[in-house]
Design a protein that fits this description.
two-stranded parallel ribbon; F-box_dom; 20 helices; alpha/beta; Leucine-rich repeat, LRR (right-handed beta-alpha superhelix); F-box domain-containing protein; about 650 residues; LRR_dom_sf
Length: about 650
């Protein structure tokens, strides 16, 4: 019986819910669902609120942690200066990633506050960029002077002209956007302008949108070129930007023109302190007269730095004498001058017309077209350069590429390396276009220029110098105490020349030979230190046979001769020389104990010629085993 009652109760329990569901109205169902949904939403809201509270707690803790960092101890003014120093280089719209200045504001709330309050951090405007970004920079910089950097889009892609053209075709609105920004640019706030483009058309489109007076303008750099394509005279019709003509900015201190045509009468400015002109394949001097150039430079009495490459009006090629200057133009503040890609006649003519009493750095790259003008140039250098008595170190080297080139460099250091007159520096590169003047040019430059105070002389690559050539070139350098010889160029003739002496009076016997009582060495009577670096001490055959090197024999004779003449060599240093061993050092130690040798033994291996065969392994001697021909650099490597 109990079993029957239990079954009935179970059936009742199963049926009742279904009956209730059948009899339930729609309003009752919605009420239940709404109650459930409300509970879920309430629960979610409580969870989200808790998450927000915890996140805020984490942020507060991180902020407190940041205050304990060492950099947070800096005053905001110092931190702002650090920010400015870190992002000093301008960024264009093509820079990968976000602008560094923007990234600074996303580090922490303190940095953001400092960055936003530092108006000087936002004074650099680089185009192309989004107009909204430019407007934000203008607002954050408040009323401070601005630096404007403008790059045409094809300048960034100038590696391949087709890429530049394709980019311009795909983005026709880019120039329109830049033009719109430039038209609204507050020229009255611009202090610096740097503009780069690869064609006259690009430059002109940029220039046309920058008009109006620029009273604060101090620095202008105009670069109209592509580094990878030749420059032609097609840019000759490109004028200077309008802002250069609007009253000639009175505060303009720096002007740089690269591959940009100009007229000297258009750039004369009383306030200029730095002038750089580089024209390369487009001689800007063409069409300008020498008098225009002289008048322009004369109108720049505040000039401190002058850097010109292929930018000076040339003398007629038929001229055989330098024109006599009617007056000498004093450049009393000029301390640094560079003249590059200029003939010796034009260089001498320029030096003839000016005086530089404050000059401390001179860099010349000169084409030597004749003996006459080489002598004229040496004479002008002797008369015009004011710091010859301060030069303590002279480096002379010769290189031979398409034309022999003589390099002469100076520095104001004595033999101990201590600076004597900081800032005085000379760098010559004299190219022998006749291919026969090399030794003669060196002899002329050394003879005509007063190098009497030089104490350290470094020579390399002077292979064309004979014994008499060495003596003729360097006999006037009586104060040389240190001689550094690098490479094989003329070293044997130089060592022979070091042993030559001049009789003075009386007679005695030297090595069994009657000589004068008093003698004077023709070269470097005060020489005490000789350094040989990378010199071939012995011929290959001599070294293979175990003989004493030819240079060693000459050194022995030179050292003994100078010792007997009372001008003893105190130190001989031998560094990384070729075909030398302990036998050479032992011989030298006999006449001058304590030779300073690095014990570097190097004998040149004979050169082998590999003939091409069907076996590719025969070329293994030419290649590094780690070289992988299948390697292709990723995209980042080209930037």
């Amino acid at each position: 019986m109990s079993y029957v009652f239990a079954a009935a109760e179970q059936a009742h329990a199963d049926v009742v819910p279904h009956v209730r569901a059948i009899n339930m109205t729609p309003a009752d169902g919605d009420s239940i669902q709404n109650t459930h949904a409300s509970a879920v939403l309430h629960r979610r809201a409580r969870i989200e609120a808790e998450i927000a509270r915890l996140n805020q707690t984490i942020l507060d803790l991180k902020s407190e942690l940041n205050t304990l960092a060492p950099i947070s101890a800096l005053p905001p003014e110092i931190l702002a200066k650090i920010f400015i120093a870190c992002v000093d280089e301008p960024e264009s719209g093509f820079t990968r990633g976000r602008c560094a200045r923007i990234r600074l504001t996303h580090v922490c709330s303190h940095w953001r506050s400092v960055a936003l309050q530092s108006s000087a951090l936002w004074t650099d405007l680089a185009l192309p960029a989004a107009p909204a970004l430019v407007q934000e920079f203008l607002a954050r910089s408040k009323s401070l002077p601005l630096r404007l950097y403008v790059y045409s889009e094809d300048y960034h892609f100038s590696l391949d002209g087709s890429i530049a053209s394709m980019f311009q075709d795909c983005h026709p609105s880019l120039y329109e956007s830049m033009a719109s920004i430039l038209k609204e640019m507050p020229m009255s706030r611009i202090r610096t302008i740097r503009m780069k483009a690869v064609s006259p058309a690009s430059s002109r489109r940029l220039y046309d949108n920058l008009d109006g007076p620029a009273p604060l303008l101090e620095s202008v750099e105009l670069d109209n070129r592509t580094p990878y394509q030749s420059i032609t005279a097609t840019s000759s019709g490109l004028p200077l930007p309008p802002f250069m003509h609007n009253g000639h900015p009175e505060r303009l201190r720096r002007l740089v023109l690269k591959h940009h045509p100009f007229r000297w009468i258009d750039i004369a400015s009383y306030s200029l302190g730095h002038l750089t002109i580089s024209c390369n394949l487009t001689p800007a001097g063409k069409g300008n007269h020498m008098q225009d150039f002289l008048h322009a430079i004369e109108s720049m009495p505040l000039l401190e730095t002058l850097d010109m490459e292929n930018a000076i009006p040339s003398l007629p090629s038929s001229m055989t004498e330098l024109p006599r200057p009617t007056s000498i133009i004093p450049l009393t503040r000029l301390h640094s001058m560079r003249l590059s890609d200029i003939s010796s006649s034009n260089c001498a003519n320029i030096l003839n017309h000016f005086s530089f009493p404050a000059l401390s750095t001179l860099n010349l790259s000169v084409r030597m077209e004749s003996e006459l003008f080489a002598e004229k140039l040496a004479g002008c250098l002797r008369e015009k350069v004011p710091f010859w008595d301060k030069v303590r170190t002279l480096k002379c080297s010769m290189s031979e590429w398409s034309f022999p080139s003589l390099q002469m460099q100076t520095s104001p250091s004595d033999c101990s390396g201590a600076p004597h007159a900081p800032g005085c520096k000379l760098d010559f590169e004299l190219t022998d276009e006749l291919i026969i003047l090399g030794p003669w040019i060196l002899s002329t430059m050394c003879r005509e220029i007063p190098w009497k105070q030089v104490q350290t002389l470094q020579v390399s690559g002077l292979s064309l110098m004979s014994v008499n050539g060495w003596i003729a070139a360097f006999e006037g350098m009586e104060h040389v105490t240190v001689l550094n010889i690098t490479g094989d160029g003329g070293v044997r003739h130089l060592i022979d020349a070091l042993g030559h002496f001049t009789p003075v009076s009386g007679t005695s016997t030297l090595f069994g030979t009657p000589v004068q009582d008093t003698v004077s060495m023709k070269l470097f009577p005060r020489l005490r230190v000789i350094t040989l670096e990378g010199v071939r001490i012995a011929d290959d055959a001599t070294f293979d046979e175990g003989g004493v090197g030819e240079v060693t024999d000459k050194l022995l004779n030179c050292i003994m001769m100078r010792y007997e003449c009372g001008v003893e060599i105190h130190t001989l240093r031998i560094t990384r020389c070729i075909n030398i061993d302990k036998d050479d050092i032992a011989k030298l130690d006999e006449v001058m104990p304590g030779v300073d040798w690095d014990a570097y033994v190097y004998a040149e291996e004979p050169e082998y010629e590999y003939e091409r065969s069907g076996d590719e392994d025969s070329y293994s001697a030419y290649y590094d085993s780690d070289y992988d021909e299948s390697f292709v650099p990723d995209d980042d490597s080209i930037y």
